[in-house]
Amino acid sequence: MKKVLVATEKPFAAVAVEGIREVIENAGYKLELLEKYTDKQQLLTAIADADAVIIRSDKIDNEVLDAAKNLKIVVRAGAGYDNVDLQSATMHNVCVMNTPGQNANAVAELAFGMMVYAYRNMYNGTSGMELKGKKLGIHAYGNVGRNVGRIAKGFGMDIYIYDCFTPQDIVDADGVKRVDTVEELYSTCDVVSVHIPATPETKKSIGRKLVSSMPKPALLVNTARKEVVNEEELLQVMSERADLKYVTDVAPDAIEEFAKYQGRFFATPKKMGAQTAEANINAGIAAARQIVDFIENGNEKFRVNK
Ligand code: 3PG
Questions:
Q1: Domain 104-267: what homologous superfamily?
Q2: Which atom of ligand 1 is nearest to the CA of 57?
Q3: pTM for the whole thing?
Q4: Which end of the chain is more exposed for a tag (fewer CB within 10 A), N or C?
């Protein structure tokens, strides 16, 4: 009997796990849960005889792949797969997939929760600002970025996007303004919401040059990855510009340095953009179905490694 492991250091909602179980057991496979694990050894042991694994931000590195003797497929229930060693997976003959779009609305809603929180001075009761009429820059217009754009319309924001990959018909249909350079996005927008993946090209790409060009007062919202921010440079700009606020769902490494900017910095205690029952159900069940379709039919539609 095939074994599917769900290895989630940050567990899905129980209702999502039930949905995953149904898909896996209906296919005649066995489901094993490894939730809230604290030690890599627990993952190494649980994955040893698994044919497939569903993960979130859990790290699948060479050591884990070496330990997983039967593994054929890893599905990252979510968008970003920077936590999986793709090259090693390919070498181990393991297919890696994500579930694009399934948790995008949840992340986009949190971005707005954080924008309102920052604009209302962290709910301290003092007079804040409204998002209506402000220029919103969406840094990458993928699944999350598009949801951010959709919600921004309801807030009455003026929407700008920077994304080289989005086809023009989507830009036109959505009625957002595309700028040609990332520099133009930051120098134009009052609020920038970051939605780029962490890749060798994007790591530390948001730093002094971009952030210091933002009009005053400026708000930077990061629900993407901490790695895309040049923390040292952002801290410098925070120290120079009292109008700059940074709110993030991906706590920086230098959190203690950022925390000095009380009232201008906020980080969620644990990354929670995709942490809704709906997103867990969508991404978790999509992952389970992709595994069954891969094992039964060889469907590799969502494969991300070569
Ligand atoms: C993603 O890449 O899908 C999001 O960052 C969500 O990550 P999580 O599943 O660890 O919450």
A1: NAD(P)-binding Rossmann-like Domain (3.40.50.720)
A2: 10
A3: 0.97
A4: N
